[in-house]
Amino acid sequence: MSVSMPADFVIARNPEEGTTLPYLLRIPLGTDGVVLKAKETWPRTGKVYCHRAVGWPREPEIVERVPVRSCVRRGAAIDLVLDRGRENRSQFVLTRIRGGREAIFWQTARTAKQARPAVALPTARGSGVRELEILVDSHERYAWTFEHQQATTVRQALTAGDYGVRVGGRVVAAVERKSLQDLVSTLTSGRMRYVLADLAALESAAVVVEDRYSAVFKLDRVRPAVVADGLGECQARFPTVPIVFCETRALAQEWTYRFLAAAVVHAGETAHAEAEATPLPAAVEPTAAQVRQWARSNGYAVSDRGRVSRVVLEAFARRSG
């Protein structure tokens, strides 16, 4: 492990002409620092590709200079923590790509988790539903578009969840979408119970988390056991509303699409069964006259008035059964 003394992390413009990596980064590690060429000034939406630079220019055009709290080399990674409130933690990962060439990727915890796993999402219709219409809550920011799935979206206010489907004009299923940070905030503030109570009122509902369950145990600003206990309590109180960890945004979107399509099919089957079911006729109690008539025709002595004996009633019940 190699540790540098706190200094500045510096971003400058790359003077090299015609480059696809327009920025230079100077990481305060070692005597002269590590100089990289980079495509962006920070990994905001995805990992940033970097490449080693020959050196730092004599008169650099500085874009940004930020004090550093710590800079540590751990194996094939450099962990960098800047002395500012936002966009302060990142990591440079040194690896080898095809052909044995070195490649360096600059990432944050957020961009690392958004990396797609090595899976190919299916394109088949969910539960055979053609062009599923998904309701998107009007308050949902940066909403899923379901562009990979055979679905269309419609904006409207939902009483529960962020995404839903309706059958016969009523919402029958909904999904609440959560990032890991949002999940932790909702759990620790006590709001999760109210969210789950609203979802439990529907025929089908779920909470989908855009992360791995293992990420809960890597949290550093809240005790992981508190979050894990909160999740367990929620599932015990509201067993009909599963909390599903789907690893990435794309997989969470795919799971939601499949779940809502299945809910539409299930709701349609239930409605059909209720409409087609023939109610059983109510049991009709025999009159005393009917019992007497049956008793006489079967050799039982009964009076014209008064109670019919228990023996006769039991015989009539056996005969009728």
Query: Total number of helical segments?
Result: 7
Low-pLDDT regions: none
| Content of β-strand | 25-35%
Gyration radius, rounded: 34 Å
| Mean pLDDT figure | 87
The largest sheet, given as strand count, sense and whether it forms a barrel, is: 8 strands, antiparallel, barrel
The total of beta strands comes to 15
Give your account of this protein's structure.
The structure is a single chain. This protein is α+β, with helices and mostly antiparallel strands. The protein is 27% helix and 28% strand. The chain has an eight-stranded antiparallel β-barrel. A hairpin with a 6-residue loop joins strand 7 and strand 8.
Secondary-structure blueprint:
Blueprint: E1 2-3, E2 8-13, E3 23-27, E4 34-38, E5 48-52, E6 62-74, E7 77-82, E8 89-96, E9 102-107, H1 109-113, E10 132-137, E11 151-156, E12 163-167, E13 170-178, H2 180-189, H3 192-200, E14 204-209, H4 224-237, E15 243-245, H5 249-276, H6 288-297, H7 310-320
Parallel strand pairs: 10-11, 13-14, 14-15
Antiparallel strand pairs: 1-6, 2-3, 2-6, 3-4, 4-5, 5-9, 6-7, 7-8, 8-9, 10-12, 12-13
